[in-house]
Amino acid sequence: MTFPAFPRSVAIALLRFAIWIAPHDTHEWGRGMLSELNHVEGNWSALIWSIGGAGVLAKHAIVAIIFPGSHRRTVSTASELFDKELPMRKTTLAIIAACTVASLLFFVAPVFRQAFRVSLAQWHTVLNVKQSFGYPSPDPELDAFAKKAEHNRDAEALAFIAVRYPNAIQRERLADEAVQLNPNLTWVYAVAGTAYLSPSEIDRRVSLLKQWDPQNALPYLFAAQKIGAPVTYSKEFPLGKLEQNPAWEKEMDAAFQSPKLDTYLDRQNQLDHRVLSRYRLDDPFQAASGDDRYGFPNYGVGECSLYAQSLLESGKSLESRGDRKAAFEKYLAVARFGQMISIDSEFTFLIKKEMKEAYGRLASLSQTEGNGEAASFYTSLADQFGKAADRQRLLLRNRIQGNDVSNWNAFLVRLSGLLMIFCAALLLLCMLGVLVRSCSFRLSSLHPSRLTLALGFGAAVGSLLSSAVLFVSYWPYSELLQRFLSKGDDSGMLELSAFLRDAQHPLGTRYSLGTWVVSSSMMVFYFWFAITVLCALAIMLAVFRHYQTRLRVGAAA
Amino acid sequence: MKTPRLSPQTLRVLERFIESPTAWRYGYELSRETGLKSGTLYPILMRLAKYGLLETKWVTTEDGVPPRHTYRLTPNGVALVRSTFADSRSSARTALKARRPAFSGGKA
To answer: Out of A28, A33, A39, whose CB is closest to B38?
Structure first.
């Protein structure tokens, strides 16, 4: 047996491949070119012959893809007249299969799996499965992780969960367990919050925090909040009368006198990073949910503002009595606390008015004392504080509402996720339809109708396109998460939080007061959504009618 | 009857066929005679077959060698080619007459 020379082998392989991809009605011509190869003199001539022939067949293959009906097998018998168009079916099926495989291949990438989970979050809200980032309800994944952490007696993991756990009793128990295992994690009591805790439990935690970090103003603010919360909102003590409560005044005074205010945000970020890396957690919701707190007791800022007002009033009273030094101390206490709070809290703008007044009074007193340099210094501090407060207000607004980029990307993620599900469902329906009609699982006996092919084609291409859009629109947020997980860089976590918050609202709704609502401001979206659906239906109907007409014409001929 | 576009290459192929209209021709043989590469020849053959001017047949030449695809003009094809070439010859004659000097033809 002799083997053909290499160029001739290539020529044969090339023509065979070209025949394989070519439409059915050109196969005979392809085989004709192939048979002639045996008679072409010279190996290189054979290769040139083959290239020319393959080019012809490839051109027909491309035309068949673009115009599926352009290449049809010659109908020779009555039974074939009603048979399916084999070349068209083959090419279309190949495209459907290729698109489906390509869509599935996206799932190999961890980033895409993550993106897909994020795109499904909108359904959690609709179906009330779990959720809600920032407004947690029971989460089976967190439950499983808690069990694992308890089993491992991992104090940091327990602290990580305690901050996120939706149930207050469990949160309390997990925080206790974490602190028992590692007393250096006592700060978790502050981060896990005091909401829904009994007064005695709050006292116990505040006492532990005061012992653990005596110079921090935070435990005193918690204590003041505990006194203030029931008092402030009762009929007996309407808002504004709180400053007459000595216990509250004592705690607030201690807070204002404290040398520092640490809300433990840095510690929490570091712990999050360590736990996420250790357990290889790549759930963006878990990574970012710790960032959803505002680093301060819930009512803390409001009460700080109240206490600052009372200090300013008492300062003015002292000033009017001529005790400038005591008045100066009062104003200074407000200014000092304002500076302290501005380092770590996003709510600085809420005491902007008091701070402005405190600096104004300090500047005025300094001027009166003949210290012009100090007066201009306090004036400049007032300006700086005002600008910083405005900046923080903007940041907070972005954090709550998200910016345009994150809103848009979240929209794309939700839309592409929905389209993926729709296309996959359509494709499955088509497959089921074909199987039911054929009553067989053998590939050769499956004969999809033209309508099924058209729908399957649209679904497969749609699935591929939506997968690509989902991947591309989520990619930057995956990078932000990876930066946090690998390097502990939390600079992008705010952006990620805003994006995730937007990504959770069902498409076409708006976030408002902790829930999603169908908003009249989304009228443009609803309009275009309706137009798109109508267009899709019209196209499907047109395709269906077109093929029906062609079948009738073919039968008549 | 619809007819394909008769490019110079197509005419070259048809000339080969019309030389012996009943004979079956091989693709490689036509390629050599017309000097056309396979990438040019086969689209012409396919187009002629599509318009019903060419018929094809598989023939076995010798044992062990795969059958070959052969081609010849259909009666319609032969008629079209003959009329085409007749037209072109009369056109050529007319053109030649038109070029002939007026004094040389003034016998009568």
So the answer is: A33
